[in-house]
Write a structure and sequence with these properties.
The chain has eight helices and no strands. The mean pLDDT is about 80. The longest helix has 22 residues, at about 10-30. The chain is flat, with a radius of gyration of 20 Å. With about 160 residues, the chain is mainly α.
Length: about 160
Amino acid sequence: AREKFKEVTQDRLDLLLGGFFFLRYVCPAIVAPEAHGIVPHVSSSSRRNLILIAKVLQNLANRTQFSKKEEFMHGMNSFLAESATALRSFFVALVDVGDHFTYFRISHLKATVPNQIERTVTISPNELYHIHRKLVQHKTSVLQPRNAEDEAMEK
């Protein structure tokens, strides 16, 4: 993202990417956990509480305080202020993935491709959603412990 949006400050880039992450991944899982296979059912009173939790997290991600529109949430503004630095550290760690060849452990393939040309991989939000959904569906097989064969591939 840094290469693509050179004119945007790092602080703003962290804010945009972190806000996107919360808006598209964290908050939907909190508001509708049954849709993501986390729990089988959520009562209406629990749903209201989950929505309020998601609102707090989204405001934290967007660095916005609750306004007069939601006076009943003003008590959370001190939490938002106190948590801003910790969340910024989280956002920095979230987007600091380094080189994709190293991150995805495919650097050994890079050397075997003649006339290697660096390419940017572009994934649409829809494709990202489907990848996420497949990972959630198959999380038990994806999250299996590493074995000796995996470690040998890295060498």
